[in-house]
Amino acid sequence: MPTRFYFPSSGSPPITPGFGTGWNRTTGAVQRPTSTTKAGTSMAEGIAMTSTATSPEFHLAAQFVSPALAAQTISGTIKGQFKCRENNASFNGTLAIGIRVVTSSGTHRAHLLNGAAATPIASDATTTPPEFATSATNRRVQNSAESFAPPITSFACNAGDYLVIEVGCRDVDTGTTRSGWVTFGDNSATDLAENETSTAADNPWIEFSGTITFQGSPTRGQVSFAELEVPSLATRGRISFAELEVPNVPTRGRISFAELELPNTPTRGRVSFAELELPGTPSRGQLSWSELELPDPPTPTRGTLSWAEMEFPSLLTRGQLSWAELEVPDVGARRRRRSRGGSLSPYRKLKPFNPYSASEYDEDD
Q1: pTM score above 0.85
Q2: Domain extents for the chain?
Q3: How far is 95 from 97, CA to CA, in rounded Å?
Q4: Phi/psi of residue 300, each to 5°?
Q5: What is the C-alpha to C-alpha distance for residues 34 and 23, in angstroms, rounded to an integer?
Q6: What b/e readout covers 319-355, taking b as 16+ CB neighbours within 10 angstroms?
Q7: pLDDT tens across 158-197, in order?
Q8: Residues 320-365: pLDDT tens digits?
Q9: Considering only the top CATH level, what class is 3-208?
Q10: Beta bridge partners of 100
Protein backbone atom coordinates (compact mmCIF):
# COMPACT_ATOMS: atom_id res chain seq x y z
CA MET A 1 0.00 0.00 0.00
CA PRO A 2 1.45 3.42 -0.93
CA THR A 3 2.39 5.77 1.94
CA ARG A 4 1.87 9.52 1.50
CA PHE A 5 3.63 12.13 3.64
CA TYR A 6 2.49 15.74 4.18
CA PHE A 7 4.60 18.84 4.80
CA PRO A 8 3.26 21.31 7.40
CA SER A 9 4.32 24.94 7.51
CA SER A 10 4.97 24.78 11.26
CA GLY A 11 5.62 22.29 14.06
CA SER A 12 8.53 20.65 15.85
CA PRO A 13 10.21 17.45 14.57
CA PRO A 14 10.71 14.44 16.88
CA ILE A 15 14.51 14.76 16.47
CA THR A 16 16.77 17.38 14.86
CA PRO A 17 19.48 15.68 12.78
CA GLY A 18 22.06 17.67 10.85
CA PHE A 19 21.23 18.69 7.31
CA GLY A 20 22.20 16.42 4.43
CA THR A 21 25.71 16.95 3.12
CA GLY A 22 24.57 17.14 -0.51
CA TRP A 23 23.12 20.65 -0.15
CA ASN A 24 25.38 23.57 -1.05
CA ARG A 25 23.42 26.09 0.99
CA THR A 26 21.44 25.39 4.17
CA THR A 27 21.40 28.88 5.73
CA GLY A 28 17.91 29.66 7.02
CA ALA A 29 16.57 26.12 6.44
CA VAL A 30 13.92 25.05 8.97
CA GLN A 31 13.22 21.69 10.66
CA ARG A 32 9.67 20.37 10.92
CA PRO A 33 7.75 17.11 11.35
CA THR A 34 6.25 15.10 8.51
CA SER A 35 3.45 12.60 8.88
CA THR A 36 0.97 10.53 6.94
CA THR A 37 -1.80 12.62 8.52
CA LYS A 38 -2.45 16.33 8.04
CA ALA A 39 -1.77 18.79 10.86
CA GLY A 40 -3.97 21.52 9.37
CA THR A 41 -1.27 24.19 9.06
CA SER A 42 -1.83 27.11 6.69
CA MET A 43 -0.12 27.41 3.30
CA ALA A 44 3.07 29.48 3.41
CA GLU A 45 6.15 29.88 1.27
CA GLY A 46 9.41 28.69 2.76
CA ILE A 47 12.61 30.69 2.91
CA ALA A 48 13.92 32.56 -0.14
CA MET A 49 16.64 30.47 -1.76
CA THR A 50 18.92 33.04 -3.39
CA SER A 51 21.50 32.17 -6.02
CA THR A 52 25.24 32.69 -5.67
CA ALA A 53 28.10 32.36 -8.11
CA THR A 54 28.02 28.55 -7.70
CA SER A 55 26.39 26.68 -10.59
CA PRO A 56 24.67 24.32 -10.29
CA GLU A 57 23.71 24.93 -6.68
CA PHE A 58 21.40 23.03 -4.32
CA HIS A 59 19.51 25.13 -1.74
CA LEU A 60 17.74 23.52 1.24
CA ALA A 61 14.46 25.15 2.28
CA ALA A 62 13.18 22.72 4.93
CA GLN A 63 13.97 19.38 6.56
CA PHE A 64 11.09 17.12 7.63
CA VAL A 65 11.41 14.18 10.05
CA SER A 66 8.94 11.28 10.25
CA PRO A 67 7.76 9.43 13.36
CA ALA A 68 10.04 6.59 14.53
CA LEU A 69 10.11 3.73 12.05
CA ALA A 70 9.47 0.05 12.67
CA ALA A 71 12.11 -2.39 11.42
CA GLN A 72 11.53 -2.80 7.68
CA THR A 73 13.12 -2.57 4.25
CA ILE A 74 12.21 0.54 2.27
CA SER A 75 12.28 0.14 -1.50
CA GLY A 76 10.28 0.96 -4.62
CA THR A 77 9.80 4.46 -6.02
CA ILE A 78 8.55 7.88 -4.93
CA LYS A 79 6.44 10.58 -6.49
CA GLY A 80 5.34 13.97 -5.23
CA GLN A 81 4.01 17.46 -5.86
CA PHE A 82 4.96 20.93 -4.52
CA LYS A 83 4.03 24.46 -5.56
CA CYS A 84 7.15 26.47 -6.44
CA ARG A 85 8.09 29.81 -7.96
CA GLU A 86 11.07 32.01 -8.90
CA ASN A 87 11.23 35.79 -9.09
CA ASN A 88 13.16 35.85 -12.36
CA ALA A 89 13.27 33.40 -15.25
CA SER A 90 17.08 33.55 -15.18
CA PHE A 91 17.09 31.79 -11.80
CA ASN A 92 16.41 28.49 -13.64
CA GLY A 93 15.21 26.78 -10.49
CA THR A 94 13.89 23.20 -10.29
CA LEU A 95 12.50 21.24 -7.34
CA ALA A 96 15.14 19.27 -5.40
CA ILE A 97 14.50 16.42 -2.95
CA GLY A 98 16.76 14.42 -0.63
CA ILE A 99 15.58 11.42 1.43
CA ARG A 100 17.68 9.53 3.96
CA VAL A 101 17.48 7.39 7.10
CA VAL A 102 19.02 8.40 10.43
CA THR A 103 19.22 6.86 13.89
CA SER A 104 17.35 8.14 16.94
CA SER A 105 20.43 10.24 17.76
CA GLY A 106 20.39 11.78 14.28
CA THR A 107 23.37 9.81 12.97
CA HIS A 108 23.19 9.32 9.23
CA ARG A 109 22.57 5.74 8.04
CA ALA A 110 21.70 5.85 4.32
CA HIS A 111 20.65 8.00 1.38
CA LEU A 112 17.63 6.55 -0.40
CA LEU A 113 17.71 8.51 -3.67
CA ASN A 114 20.15 9.22 -6.49
CA GLY A 115 21.80 5.81 -6.28
CA ALA A 116 22.50 6.34 -2.55
CA ALA A 117 24.55 9.47 -3.31
CA ALA A 118 24.31 12.49 -1.01
CA THR A 119 23.36 14.85 -3.86
CA PRO A 120 19.60 15.53 -3.92
CA ILE A 121 17.59 14.61 -7.00
CA ALA A 122 16.33 17.38 -9.30
CA SER A 123 15.64 17.95 -12.95
CA ASP A 124 18.53 19.64 -14.77
CA ALA A 125 16.28 21.06 -17.49
CA THR A 126 16.00 24.81 -17.98
CA THR A 127 12.64 24.80 -19.72
CA THR A 128 9.37 25.60 -18.00
CA PRO A 129 8.25 23.15 -16.68
CA PRO A 130 10.09 21.63 -14.88
CA GLU A 131 11.76 24.99 -14.24
CA PHE A 132 9.79 27.16 -11.80
CA ALA A 133 7.29 29.68 -13.13
CA THR A 134 7.29 33.25 -11.82
CA SER A 135 4.01 32.59 -9.99
CA ALA A 136 3.51 29.68 -7.58
CA THR A 137 2.65 26.66 -9.73
CA ASN A 138 2.53 22.92 -9.21
CA ARG A 139 5.73 20.97 -9.91
CA ARG A 140 6.42 17.23 -9.88
CA VAL A 141 9.23 15.53 -7.99
CA GLN A 142 11.67 14.23 -10.61
CA ASN A 143 15.32 13.35 -11.11
CA SER A 144 17.88 14.39 -13.70
CA ALA A 145 16.41 11.84 -16.11
CA GLU A 146 13.08 13.71 -15.74
CA SER A 147 11.45 10.58 -14.31
CA PHE A 148 8.27 11.24 -12.31
CA ALA A 149 8.88 8.03 -10.31
CA PRO A 150 12.51 8.18 -9.13
CA PRO A 151 13.73 4.83 -7.73
CA ILE A 152 14.55 4.27 -4.08
CA THR A 153 17.82 2.56 -3.19
CA SER A 154 16.58 -0.34 -1.04
CA PHE A 155 17.62 -0.10 2.62
CA ALA A 156 16.87 -2.16 5.75
CA CYS A 157 15.88 0.19 8.59
CA ASN A 158 16.18 -0.66 12.25
CA ALA A 159 13.36 -0.13 14.69
CA GLY A 160 13.67 3.41 16.02
CA ASP A 161 15.27 4.89 12.90
CA TYR A 162 13.76 8.01 11.34
CA LEU A 163 12.99 9.00 7.77
CA VAL A 164 14.32 12.45 6.82
CA ILE A 165 12.87 14.24 3.78
CA GLU A 166 14.62 17.44 2.69
CA VAL A 167 13.04 19.84 0.19
CA GLY A 168 14.65 22.69 -1.70
CA CYS A 169 15.71 23.67 -5.21
CA ARG A 170 18.51 23.45 -7.72
CA ASP A 171 19.54 26.51 -9.75
CA VAL A 172 22.15 27.30 -12.39
CA ASP A 173 22.07 31.10 -12.03
CA THR A 174 25.43 32.76 -11.27
CA GLY A 175 23.86 36.04 -10.22
CA THR A 176 23.15 37.04 -6.63
CA THR A 177 19.75 38.74 -6.76
CA ARG A 178 17.40 36.02 -7.96
CA SER A 179 15.54 33.57 -5.71
CA GLY A 180 13.18 30.63 -5.63
CA TRP A 181 10.51 29.46 -3.15
CA VAL A 182 8.62 26.26 -2.25
CA THR A 183 5.20 26.35 -0.54
CA PHE A 184 4.41 24.20 2.52
CA GLY A 185 1.19 23.59 4.49
CA ASP A 186 -1.54 20.94 4.90
CA ASN A 187 -4.88 22.60 5.67
CA SER A 188 -6.63 21.84 2.37
CA ALA A 189 -9.21 19.10 1.91
CA THR A 190 -7.44 18.30 -1.38
CA ASP A 191 -3.90 17.26 -2.22
CA LEU A 192 -2.04 18.81 -5.14
CA ALA A 193 -2.92 17.09 -8.40
CA GLU A 194 -0.34 15.17 -10.39
CA ASN A 195 0.38 17.87 -12.96
CA GLU A 196 2.55 20.93 -13.50
CA THR A 197 -0.21 23.45 -14.13
CA SER A 198 -2.28 23.78 -10.96
CA THR A 199 -2.08 26.97 -8.90
CA ALA A 200 -4.60 25.85 -6.25
CA ALA A 201 -3.69 26.16 -2.57
CA ASP A 202 -3.69 22.40 -2.06
CA ASN A 203 -1.47 20.16 0.07
CA PRO A 204 2.07 19.31 -1.09
CA TRP A 205 2.98 15.65 -0.67
CA ILE A 206 5.48 12.86 -1.36
CA GLU A 207 4.30 9.27 -1.74
CA PHE A 208 6.33 6.08 -1.36
CA SER A 209 5.13 3.24 -3.57
CA GLY A 210 5.34 0.77 -0.66
CA THR A 211 4.01 0.67 2.89
CA ILE A 212 6.05 2.54 5.50
CA THR A 213 5.36 1.30 9.03
CA PHE A 214 6.07 3.11 12.28
CA GLN A 215 6.66 1.97 15.83
CA GLY A 216 3.29 1.21 17.40
CA SER A 217 1.59 0.69 14.04
CA PRO A 218 -1.13 -1.99 13.98
CA THR A 219 -0.05 -5.20 12.29
CA ARG A 220 -1.67 -6.65 9.23
CA GLY A 221 -2.33 -10.15 7.99
CA GLN A 222 -4.95 -12.86 8.31
CA VAL A 223 -6.27 -14.13 11.62
CA SER A 224 -8.97 -16.71 12.18
CA PHE A 225 -11.54 -16.60 14.96
CA ALA A 226 -10.31 -20.02 16.08
CA GLU A 227 -6.99 -18.37 17.00
CA LEU A 228 -8.11 -15.07 18.48
CA GLU A 229 -10.59 -14.09 21.15
CA VAL A 230 -12.65 -11.17 19.84
CA PRO A 231 -15.22 -10.18 22.48
CA SER A 232 -18.66 -9.17 21.26
CA LEU A 233 -17.96 -10.12 17.64
CA ALA A 234 -19.76 -12.81 15.69
CA THR A 235 -17.74 -16.00 15.41
CA ARG A 236 -18.03 -16.80 11.72
CA GLY A 237 -15.67 -16.42 8.77
CA ARG A 238 -12.25 -14.76 8.71
CA ILE A 239 -11.16 -11.25 9.50
CA SER A 240 -8.01 -9.32 8.62
CA PHE A 241 -6.05 -6.90 10.78
CA ALA A 242 -7.10 -4.23 8.30
CA GLU A 243 -10.66 -4.79 9.58
CA LEU A 244 -9.85 -5.19 13.25
CA GLU A 245 -8.06 -3.15 15.88
CA VAL A 246 -5.82 -5.49 17.84
CA PRO A 247 -3.99 -3.32 20.39
CA ASN A 248 -0.45 -4.27 21.39
CA VAL A 249 -0.27 -7.48 19.35
CA PRO A 250 3.12 -7.30 17.58
CA THR A 251 2.53 -10.07 15.06
CA ARG A 252 1.94 -10.73 11.40
CA GLY A 253 0.05 -13.50 9.64
CA ARG A 254 -1.57 -16.19 11.78
CA ILE A 255 -1.37 -16.14 15.55
CA SER A 256 -1.91 -18.83 18.17
CA PHE A 257 -2.81 -18.63 21.84
CA ALA A 258 0.90 -19.00 22.55
CA GLU A 259 1.48 -15.71 20.72
CA LEU A 260 -1.48 -13.77 22.10
CA GLU A 261 -1.96 -12.09 25.45
CA LEU A 262 -5.25 -13.27 26.92
CA PRO A 263 -6.45 -11.64 30.18
CA ASN A 264 -5.64 -13.73 33.24
CA THR A 265 -4.04 -16.45 31.14
CA PRO A 266 -0.36 -17.41 31.25
CA THR A 267 1.23 -16.48 27.92
CA ARG A 268 4.49 -18.44 27.81
CA GLY A 269 5.08 -21.62 25.85
CA ARG A 270 2.32 -23.36 23.93
CA VAL A 271 -1.18 -22.91 25.31
CA SER A 272 -3.90 -25.29 24.16
CA PHE A 273 -7.62 -25.20 24.86
CA ALA A 274 -7.06 -28.07 27.28
CA GLU A 275 -4.60 -25.94 29.28
CA LEU A 276 -6.53 -22.67 29.39
CA GLU A 277 -8.23 -21.38 32.47
CA LEU A 278 -11.50 -20.00 31.17
CA PRO A 279 -13.24 -17.30 33.27
CA GLY A 280 -15.97 -18.71 35.46
CA THR A 281 -14.78 -22.30 35.04
CA PRO A 282 -13.56 -24.07 38.22
CA SER A 283 -10.75 -25.95 36.52
CA ARG A 284 -6.98 -26.23 36.70
CA GLY A 285 -4.37 -28.26 34.87
CA GLN A 286 -5.57 -30.37 31.94
CA LEU A 287 -9.11 -29.67 30.85
CA SER A 288 -11.10 -31.29 28.06
CA TRP A 289 -14.22 -29.92 26.45
CA SER A 290 -16.20 -32.83 27.94
CA GLU A 291 -15.19 -31.61 31.41
CA LEU A 292 -16.20 -28.00 30.87
CA GLU A 293 -19.35 -26.57 32.33
CA LEU A 294 -20.78 -24.13 29.80
CA PRO A 295 -23.35 -21.83 31.44
CA ASP A 296 -26.86 -22.25 30.09
CA PRO A 297 -26.27 -21.74 26.38
CA PRO A 298 -29.51 -20.89 24.56
CA THR A 299 -28.84 -23.43 21.83
CA PRO A 300 -30.84 -26.04 19.92
CA THR A 301 -30.56 -29.61 21.24
CA ARG A 302 -30.68 -31.87 18.19
CA GLY A 303 -28.02 -33.65 16.16
CA THR A 304 -24.49 -32.37 15.67
CA LEU A 305 -23.59 -28.75 16.25
CA SER A 306 -20.45 -26.87 15.20
CA TRP A 307 -18.82 -24.20 17.37
CA ALA A 308 -19.41 -21.72 14.58
CA GLU A 309 -23.15 -22.26 15.10
CA MET A 310 -23.14 -21.83 18.87
CA GLU A 311 -22.79 -18.71 20.98
CA PHE A 312 -20.71 -19.38 24.08
CA PRO A 313 -19.77 -16.15 25.90
CA SER A 314 -16.00 -15.72 26.24
CA LEU A 315 -15.25 -18.97 24.39
CA LEU A 316 -13.73 -19.39 20.96
CA THR A 317 -15.08 -21.57 18.20
CA ARG A 318 -13.07 -24.48 17.08
CA GLY A 319 -13.88 -27.52 14.95
CA GLN A 320 -16.99 -29.73 15.11
CA LEU A 321 -18.55 -30.83 18.38
CA SER A 322 -21.26 -33.46 18.89
CA TRP A 323 -23.65 -33.55 21.78
CA ALA A 324 -22.13 -36.85 22.85
CA GLU A 325 -18.90 -34.96 23.49
CA LEU A 326 -20.33 -32.02 25.46
CA GLU A 327 -22.08 -31.66 28.80
CA VAL A 328 -24.53 -28.80 28.73
CA PRO A 329 -26.00 -28.26 32.24
CA ASP A 330 -29.69 -27.60 32.75
CA VAL A 331 -30.64 -27.90 29.11
CA GLY A 332 -33.20 -30.44 27.93
CA ALA A 333 -31.41 -32.85 25.62
CA ARG A 334 -32.35 -35.32 22.91
CA ARG A 335 -30.24 -38.21 21.94
CA ARG A 336 -30.26 -40.95 19.30
CA ARG A 337 -30.15 -44.51 20.57
CA ARG A 338 -29.56 -47.69 18.64
CA SER A 339 -32.37 -50.25 18.20
CA ARG A 340 -31.69 -53.95 18.41
CA GLY A 341 -31.24 -54.01 14.65
CA GLY A 342 -28.42 -51.52 14.91
CA SER A 343 -30.21 -48.67 13.17
CA LEU A 344 -30.91 -45.30 14.71
CA SER A 345 -34.26 -45.01 16.45
CA PRO A 346 -36.33 -41.80 16.65
CA TYR A 347 -35.34 -39.19 19.21
CA ARG A 348 -36.56 -39.80 22.74
CA LYS A 349 -36.97 -37.08 25.28
CA LEU A 350 -34.49 -37.20 28.18
CA LYS A 351 -34.54 -35.65 31.60
CA PRO A 352 -32.48 -32.48 32.13
CA PHE A 353 -28.86 -33.35 32.67
CA ASN A 354 -27.76 -33.84 36.27
CA PRO A 355 -23.98 -33.46 36.64
CA TYR A 356 -24.09 -35.43 39.90
CA SER A 357 -25.98 -38.40 38.50
CA ALA A 358 -24.13 -41.72 38.30
CA SER A 359 -25.28 -42.26 34.71
CA GLU A 360 -24.55 -40.06 31.74
CA TYR A 361 -28.24 -39.41 31.06
CA ASP A 362 -31.44 -40.13 33.01
CA GLU A 363 -34.05 -41.24 30.53
CA ASP A 364 -37.81 -41.14 30.83
CA ASP A 365 -39.10 -44.64 30.52
Answers
A1: no
A2: 3-208, 218-271, 289-365
A3: 7
A4: -65, 160
A5: 20
A6: eebebeeebbeebebeeeeeeeeeeeeeeeebeebee
A7: 999 999 999 999 999 988 889 999 999 999 999 999 999 9
A8: 444 444 454 444 434 343 434 444 334 344 455 454 444 444 444 4
A9: mainly beta
A10: 111, 164
